[in-house]
Amino acid sequence: MATQLNGSTGKVLRVDLTSSKIWDDALDEATIRRFLGGTGLGVKYMTDLVDPKTNWSDPKNIFFIGSGPLGGLRIPGCASVSVVTKGAQTNGLTSTQSNGNLGAHLKWCGYDAIVVSGASPTWKYLYLHDGGVELRDATRFVGKDTWRTEEAIKEELGYKERTMSVFSIGPAGENLVKFAGIFGDRGHAAAHNGVGAVLGAKKLKAFAVARGTKKVPVVNQELINELGRQTTEVAKTFGGGNVYTWGTSRVVPGAETAGWLPVKNYLTNVFPEKDLFDGARLRSLFKSTNYPCYACSSHHYELMAITEGKNAGFAGKEPEYEQWASMGPQIQVKDPADVLVIANLVDQMGMETNETGWVIGWVMECYEKGALTKKDLDGLEMTWGNVSAVMELIKNIAHRRGYGNVLAEGVKYAAEKLGGEAVKWAVFTGKGGSPRGHDHRGRWVEMLDTCISDTGTLQTQMLINNKEIWDMPAPFDIFNPDQVALAEANSTGSMTISDCLVQCWFCAFNDTKLQTEAINAATGLNMTIDEVKKVGRRIINIMRLYNLKCGLTPNKEVPSFRYCSTPVDGPNKDKGIRPHWENMVNKYYQLMGWDRSTGMPLPETIKALGIEDIAKKFK
Amino acid sequence: MRIDPDVCIACEACVPYCPVEAIKMDDEKGVAVINQDECVDCCVCLNSKVCPVDCIIFEPQPWPRSLRVTFSNPRTGHKETRIAGRGTEEMKTNDVTGRFKRGWIGLGLEFGRPGIGTRFRDLEKMAMALAKLGVHFEPQNPVTFLMVDTKTGKLKDEVLNEKVLSAIIECAFPIEKLKDVLNTMKKVAKEIDTVFSVDCICKADPDGSYPVKKILAEAGITPYVNGKQNVGLGRPKAKEE
Predict the structure, then answer these.
(1) Which stretches in chain A have pLDDT values below 50?
(2) A609 and A469, same structural domain?
(3) Residue B70 C-alpha from the chain's centroid
């Protein structure tokens, strides 16, 4: 019997695919205070249920997908979900989030989260609605891309637009592509670190969650409404409100100017066509329709259709900045209409866009330099910017056809398998994770973060509203190694809080004060800002303890040769991070309270965060 | 108007668009809800295309609610007069229509405004009070069409609670009655739940003066004067006096 909680439904749905058994777990107040929800709750489930030695594809791995204590409330950005599992790319504990409405739908159906264990002998999908839950046959959806799966499931169950969230894996997830993700609500994605492959291994094609009607109880509805309005104001004004008005593609030209747009697999930082990718231009060039998430008035997310030219008639979603970057300048596709088509294909095949970009960029460089030939590539001429070859290669990877089968393991694996000089051309981290769609040689904090993060990709963010809460250095020299380590260490945990609440970064911009007030208005837990900050830090440290048992060692927390090379042109020419790397990591470890040789959180760190029990378990 | 609760995403974009503040966020349902009693079916929320998920719905309503859209949505015509919106022939074109002869006053009482609206029961109070003074209600006016009896100004019972964005009473009477009419208006104004403005129409005298100025001044009313002249856009329907 679940206790009556506020902000939480008090329940987690448990589904075991091996036995087809479905049951409820009860949540208690102490768990919420310690882990909040979302990523935190997922991490708790992982540490409780999954031995770190378990392989990501083993049925004993679990797949957590859930909302948090603000989920389904009228606070912008809180309809999102966080996924927690052992990821296919790093084979470590990972967490990745998606916008859309699944988080809100879950809460309105009476659950904070779903935890899937086991593996099904045949393809299934999970259907959750107000009146119950069932595992249904998904055989007829196998092979369908993520968009067609979403449509077909809604049709089968009789749900119209926006009355159901369907998040599914595409062919890439079915075929255990190591960077497969899950996609839903018309192109939203939780895609980092191969979480789609985990579902593929479990033979779970999709989550179909109807818009339930159960109200989430809160202690102070008036205050929640007010904080929702305040959050909207932050979204509207932070960073000039660019994302609120134009979405993330507005970033492309500025990223090139600042030298952190990934261009031609890091061979250059110059992209003369950058202005073609300005978000404002793209929205007038293509037919754009606002498609916001629950409780959000932002124009961050739009559907996009092409009305003229060779791609006329194409309809999909507006690519995010990282999709424009990875499928545009990174692989030298210079016509935004082509990028729009390719980016949607990647989503529909069900693959993470950044890793796809690092893979294709590396293949193109190998092709140019003769390390890979047309014959090696099943007849594809992988010249820079060759759109039709790119489309074919993406499908080959998703279906593990020909050389696509090698590339499906990710760029680190493919490069190391090919060997020789080509290893030096690949962008990856020592753990096997993917940097997001930036040239981090112009964003040192993010390179450091990506390499030491436990999610396999970015885990914190310097851009914080109310940043004094996190003691961010100001003014801040982004190429000063000491300040970079300090900024990274001080901000660590801020993003994790958003991921525990499962709130879109583009709404509250990790404003911990606003978020703490919202947590208290929803749950009545009366937490202090320091307590909430500690939750973020706690989750980071628990993930680290766990991942060290998965085989993580500090010497894997490094950028690849190309990833940390020195820019040869552009505004950051000759600014090399490599000479500073060791000192930067040393300083970061020290600030975090971690042992430099083992990577372990020090006893005082463990004590301060109150995670002695977990540290004992993963000693 | 209504909002489909299965589709609304509670972005609150529609809320400020409602001219009568009938759209409110419902904390229980977690969506925007339209107060059906207050909504005047003007379709401003719908026509502004502000809803990102297209969940604002207008369905044609049966009598008497059907009055709301005809009076409140300027894109909708009255069946009877074939004129759109709150529905009056422009009284200001008197030199074309010649409805108000020299020595007569044409009166237009514009009830309701965006932000407040009006119910027909308030119009009825005024119409009945004016009827007692023997005014002639304009037969081509849509409010007149709702009268049971133009002698008493009584409206049909079933329409009294209907709310619209704006509606206009139009009538005519000899200038001698203006003082009484103004006094009556002032008295009724205190009994009603909305605002109204007064259009007082008459022919100017050949010397350019206008006869109502003094009477209005005595009643303590300062008019905004609007001149209107047919500048050859058509032959007057009415013969010049």
Answers:
(1) 1-2
(2) yes
(3) 11
Domain boundaries, chain B: 1-59, 73-218
The answer to whether A59 contacts chain B (CB < 8 Å) is no
- Which of A72, A215, A295 is nearest residue B11 as measured by Cβ atoms? A295
Closest CB to A74: pick one of B13, B30, B52.
Answer: B30
**Mean pLDDT on B22-38:** 96
pLDDT value of residue B209:
85
* Cβ within 8 Å of residue A159, ≥6 positions away: A210
CA distance, residue B7 to nearest chain A CA (Å): 6
Domain extent at residue A397: 240-425
Is the residue at A1 inside a domain?
no
- Confirm whether B1-59 and B73-218 share one CATH topology: yes
A3 touches chain B (CB under 8 A): no
Number of domains in chain A: 3
Give the global pTM: 0.93
What are the start-end ranges of the E strands in chain B?
2-3, 23-26, 31-34, 56-57, 104-111, 118-119, 136-137, 147-149, 154-155, 163-164, 167-174, 196-201
* B28 has a chain A CB within 8 A of its CB: yes
Tally of CB atoms within 10 A around A161:
13
Q: Does domain B73-218 have CATH number 3.40.50.880?
A: no
| Cα angle for residues A160, A163, A168 (degrees, 5° grid) | 90
Predicted ipTM of the assembly? 0.90
Asked if B52's CB is within 8 angstroms of A290's CB, the reply is yes
Q: Alpha-carbon distance A364 to A5, whole Å?
A: 54
Q: Which of B6, B12, B30 sits opposite A297 (nearest CB)?
A: B12
- Residues from chain A contacting residue B57 (CB–CB below 8 Å): none
Domain B1-59 sits in CATH 3.30.70.20: yes
Q: Choose among B13, B27, B30: nearest Cβ to A297.
A: B13
Instruction: Determine the residue of chain B that is closest to A291 in CA distance.
Output: B52
**Percentage of residues of chain A with pLDDT beyond 70:** 100
Residue A1 is predicted with a pLDDT of: 45
Contact A422, A415 (CB under 8 A): yes
CB spacing of B9 vs A74 below 8 angstroms? no
Tens digit of each residue's pLDDT (9 = 90 or more) over B12-28? 999 999 999 999 999 99
- Chain A residues whose CB is inside 8 A of the B13 CB are 297
Of the three residues A366, A392, A425, the one that is the final residue of a domain is A425
Nearest CB neighbour to B10, from listed A161, A163, A294: A294
Looking at the complex, does the CB of residue B25 fall below 8 Å from at least one CB of chain A? yes
Report pLDDT digits (tens) over A507-545.
Answer: 999 999 999 999 999 999 999 999 999 999 999 999 999
* B6–A162 CB contact, under 8 Å: yes
Q: How far apart are CA B8 and CA B11, in angstroms?
A: 8
CA B164 to chain A, closest CA, distance in angstroms equals 29
Residue A24 to chain B, least CA–CA distance (Å): 25
Pair A176, A265 in one domain: no
Q: Is B238 on the interface with A (CB under 8 A)?
A: no
Q: Is the same domain home to A447 and A418? A: no
Q: What is the pLDDT of residue A619?
A: 87
Q: Report the pLDDT value the prediction gives residue A512, as an integer from 0 to 100.
A: 97
Residues A527 and A597 in one domain: yes
Residue B231 vs residue A187, higher pLDDT: A187
Task: Check whether residue A285 and residue A205 sit in a common domain.
Answer: no
Residues A478 and A488: their CA atoms lie apart, in Å, by 11
Residue A431: inside a domain, yes or no? no
* Distance, CA of A512 to CA of B182 (rounded, Å): 62
Alpha-carbon distance of A531 to A511, in angstroms, equals 14
- Indicate whether A217 belongs to any domain: no
**Co-location of A202 and A150 in the same domain:** yes
pLDDT of amino acid B228: 72
Tokens of B238: 């009415």
Per the prediction, chain B carries an average pLDDT of 90
